[in-house]
Specification:
CATH superfamily of the largest domain in chain A: P-loop containing nucleotide triphosphate hydrolases
Shape of chain B: globular
Number of domains of chain A: 2
Radius of gyration of chain B: 21 Å
Strand content of chain B: under 5%
CATH architecture of chain B: Orthogonal Bundle
CATH architecture of the largest domain in chain A: 3-Layer(aba) Sandwich
Number of strands of chain A: 20
Oligomer: heterodimer
CATH topology of the largest domain in chain A: Rossmann fold
Structural class of chain B: mainly alpha
CATH topology of chain B: ABC transporter involved in vitamin B12 uptake, BtuC
Structural class of chain A: alpha/beta
Number of helices of chain A: 17
Radius of gyration of chain A: 24 Å
Strand order of the largest sheet of chain A: 6-7-8-3-9-10
Shape of chain A: globular
Number of domains of chain B: 1
Strand content of chain A: 15-25%
Helix content of chain B: over 70%
CATH class of the largest domain in chain A: Alpha Beta
Chain lengths: ~500, ~375
């Protein structure tokens, strides 16, 4: 097992953008190194350099003291560095074992020796998936384990994990944590990238925080406090969202949901939402949170029940829901939120019909307003949403619905996978909108967020509402208990 | 503000350059062989006439591709419309027969779209099926023989619809004046330049310049669809449906309606092309227009339309159709050996696609850097 050290790694793109300004990082055998940073701090560039997808413009990589260079993913792999990406690149139509063996040489499709080797490896990971299952049939957590097995099968000594837990539910995360600990125990060096400070605190031995392409913090985890990490990421002291000092005054009932159900996904659910109320939906992934939103919005075709807006029933198709004033900010912004081929201004104008001809000037003005109001970091209204970082793209998706026509706002994980600055911006915006009288339903995996922002909480488990909670009188652990497990406590697997 | 490099770059304007280059090469060849001038208004009018049917179908196909779907059945639908027209015109007269032909075409589009949208089969497979089935229907209707219109007066009506020469000198000058005026008022240098070019061409062609009616139909249809795509909410939503159907649906856009509409438009345009084809000859043989769907798709690809939806321009599709028919015309006029024609056409299509793909890759490089800059 060898130590991999990066010294003064810098990266300047041909267009002059400086992504990294000299980063030092040491990955030692048997240690887990946490890497944090806001979106755009240079994490992705650093990972791409480690993975061989980009070449650094300055600096050296040393492996056991010897300078090494690679500029292709194959080269990185040959040097014993395996990278596991957040969006798992697997072939869905092949089986798990074939994916694991994808980059092996030879001419035979399956060999007994390979199979035995991989079977042993997968057993050592705790048999998270059947070897011959099609990857397309596996749940996302098992796919993550396939990717990890793929990295280990090549015999990597250094494992780079780019937000491996971002899209996983509680028990799946626990499995990843166990795996990381096992890898470190076997003497491998692990670079663990995450947005979750609690994970970093529980799992890592040392921490590096990047900001603007520089290392702003490097320390042993043991001596660190989590708010010090948060402050280093944000670069200013994080003003954590305070809970509302006193109960907010709510208006008249706006949205009434009666016996809304969807076979196999959602048990009959009824509730009423008042003007200016923020209703939080707490629960684990797959507990029926998103399903409830989609049933309200009419995108779930099998849903039955009634949705009343100001006492009038809303049609059961999404275009009717939008026409009535219900807006949904979906969970997956790239796949469901924006159209990459359209500009920012065009995306923001997309839901607003009611006229025949386009009014490009009005659309641009509206986009300029949104850029200012939501503090979207974008070159201008003609920028493509795909060019923006995650938090800013999310703001664009929200901006689509900031019009007087919106009567009810449904938000599905609006802060998932975005940095702490944008997250605070979005939560503040939600509060401001509610103060203006807009009722909001907020789904979030971050119970802390729900407790800080919401007026009322519904807790879901297995597709049914199992309880209601008053955020002023509840703690995060209350919610975790009610949701039946929730995100497994990070320390449990230790 | 104009992004000159983008507007005039190979990816945005490549098909226009290719068309001009080809015309230049053919003109030089014609001159060197002592043939009559290739770039005469008469010959250019001929090329446009030959390209008009494929152009009309290509414009609708572009809309189809923009929504992310695909229609292989256009040539068969055109042949069916022609067969319905020829079969009925003798009994009911030209206009009712043409109306019936358009209705038949529209219903096939509706069928295609309904199967694709509501059964969920891939458009390629569905329209491959209807390509074959509708051609079979043509064979059944015609009993495998050529049909023709016997009544001289109906035939005259049909010829009048298809072969009338339309004088274009004054309309073109009016268009040029309009463009220059609009450009001056709104301060659009490109519009002024376009107006000057149109005016200059009209003056070069002379007051006697006429084209066949299908060219005018193509121009009007293209202008209409271009306007809808460029300036209306419906146009933007068509791009959104193809660019990210799920995002469009969650924005409250009726994705089914737009997709279905594109299928109907495609089939109706094919039906109209079929009517023009039937009128041209006053007869239809059951294998008419076989294989034309590939030329239509080739024209759209030459025009830079993405097969994955969300991007495309009808004006460039028409330029693509003109490019393909300029090749054909050049081979015939210059007698360059018809055997080489298919080879050259195929190479041109692949080369065009390569240019678009490489251009798109370069565009994709920029966003990654811009992301770093924005953050």
């Amino acid at each position: 097992m060898v130590t991999l050290s990066l010294e003064g790694i810098a990266k300047t793109f041909p267009n002059g953008t400086v992504a990294l300004r000299g980063v030092d990082l040491t990955l030692a055998p048997g240690r887990v190194h946490g890497l944090l940073g806001a979106n755009g701090a240079g994490k992705s560039t650093l990972i791409k350099i480690l993975a061989g997808a980009l070449a650094p413009t300055a600096g050296t990589i040393r492996r056991g003291g010897e300078p090494v260079r690679w500029s292709t993913p194959r080269g990185a792999k040959a040097a014993g560095v395996a990278t596991i990406y957040q969006h798992i690149p697997l072939v869905p139509t092949l089986s798990a074992i074939e994916n694991i063996l994808l980059d092996e040489g030879g001419w035979r499709r399956s060999r007994a020796a390979d199979r035995a080797r991989i079977a042993a490896l997968v057993t050592s990971l705790g048999d998270p998936f059947p070897l011959d299952a099609l990857v397309a049939d596996l749940p996302i957590g098992a796919r993550q384990m396939v990717a990890i097995a793929q990295a280990l099968a090549a015999g990597a000594g250094v494992v780079v994990m780019d937000e491996p837990t971002a899209s996983l539910a509680g028990h799946e995360r626990t499995r990843v944590y166990e795996t990381i600990r096992r890898l470190a125990g076997e003497g491998k060096a692990v670079l663990f990238v995450s947005h979750f400070i609690d994970e970093i605190m529980a799992l890592t031995d040392e921490v590096t925080v990047l900001r603007d392409g520089r290392t702003v913090l490097h320390a042993e985890t043991a001596g660190l406090e989590s708010h010090a990490i948060a402050a280093a990421i944000a670069g200013r002291s994080v003003t954590a969202l305070e809970r509302a000092a006193e109960p907010r005054t709510l208006g008249a009932p706006v949205l009434e949901v009666r016996d809304l159900a969807s076979p196999g996904r959602l048990a009959p659910t009824s509730f009423t939402l008042r003007a200016g109320e923020i209703l939080g939906l707490a629960g684990t992934l797959g507990s029926g949170r998103s399903e409830l939103l989609h049933a309200i919005f009419g995108t779930d075709r099998r849903a039955s029940g009634t949705v009343l807006l100001d006492g009038a029933p809303v049609g059961r198709w999404p275009d009717e829901a939008v026409a009535a004033g219900i807006a949904l900010v979906p969970e997956d912004r790239a796949a469901q939120g924006y159209v990459p081929a359209l500009t920012l201004a065009e995306n923001i104008a997309l839901p607003h019909g009611g006229r025949w001809l386009l009014d490009a000037d009005a659309d641009r003005t509206a986009a300029d307003d949104a850029i200012r109001r939501l503090a979207i970091k974008a070159p201008g209204p003609d920028a493509a949403p795909g060019e923006l970082s995650g938090g800013n793209a999310q703001k664009v998706v929200i901006a689509k619905w900031l019009s007087p026509a919106t009567r009810v706002l449904l938000l599905d994980e609006p802060t998932a996978g975005i940095d702490i600055g944008a997250r605070t911006d979005i939560l503040r915006l939600i509060r401001a909108l509610a103060d203006g009288g807009l009722p909001v339903i907020l789904v979030s995996s971050e119970f802390e967020e729900l407790l800080a922002v919401c007026d009322r909480l519904l807790v879901l488990r297995d597709g049914a509402v199992v309880g209601e909670a008053d955020p002023a009188a509840s703690t995060e652990s209350d919610l975790i208990l009610m949701a039946g497990g929730g995100r497994a406590p990070v320390g449990a697997a230790a | 503000m104009i992004d000159w490099r983008r507007t005039f770059g190979l990816r945005e304007a490549g098909v226009h350059y290719a068309l001009l280059l080809l015309l230049g090469v053919l003109a030089a060849l014609a001159a060197s062989r002592g043939l009559p001038p290739y770039l005469s208004s008469q010959n250019l009018g001929n090329i446009a006439y030959q390209a008009s049917l494929v152009g009309i179908m290509g414009v609708a196909m572009t809309v189809m591709l923009i929504t992310g779907a695909f229609d292989l059945s256009v040539a068969s639908v055109a042949a069916l419309a022609a067969a319905v027209l020829i079969g009925l015109a003798g009994q009911v007269g030209f206009v009712p027969a043409a109306g019936a032909a358009l209705c038949v075409a529209a219903s096939i589009g509706l069928l295609n779209g309904a199967i694709v949208q509501f059964v969920g089969i891939n458009a390629f497979i569905v329209t491959l099926g209807t390509l074959t089935a509708v051609r079979g229907l043509v064979l059944i209707l015609t009993d495998g023989r050529s049909l023709m219109v016997e009544q001289p007066q109906v035939l005259a009506e049909m010829l009048a619809f298809e072969s009338t020469r339309v004088p274009l000198f004054w309309p073109l000058l009016a268009l040029a004046a309009g463009l220059i005026a609009l450009g001056a008022v709104r301060r659009l240098p490109l519009t002024i330049a376009g107006g000057v070019v149109v005016g200059a061409l009209a003056l070069l062609a002379g007051p006697g310049f006429t084209v066949a009616a299908p060219v005018v139909y193509l121009a009007l249809f293209t202008a209409l669809v271009w306007f809808v795509l460029r300036f209306t909410v419906a146009g933007r939503r068509l791009y959104a449906v193809g660019g990210n159907a799920e995002a469009a649906r969650l924005s409250g856009i009726n994705v089914h309606a737009y997709r279905l509409g594109a299928f109907v438009l495609s089939s109706v345009a094919a039906g109209f092309a079929g009517i023009l084809f039937g009128c041209r000859l006053g007869a239809i043989n059951p294998t008419a227009l076989q294989g034309a769907e590939l030329t239509v798709i080739a024209a759209a690809i030459l025009g830079g339309t993405s097969l994955f939806g969300g991007a495309g321009s009808v004006v460039k599709t028409v330029a693509g159709a003109l490019l393909l028919f300029t090749l054909t015309n050049g081979f015939n006029v210059l007698d360059l050996g018809a055997n080489y024609q298919g080879l050259i056409e195929g190479i041109v299509v692949v080369a065009a696609a390569a240019i678009y793909t490489i251009g798109a890759d370069r565009r994709r490089d920029r966003p990654a850097a811009a992301e770093e800059a924005a953050a």
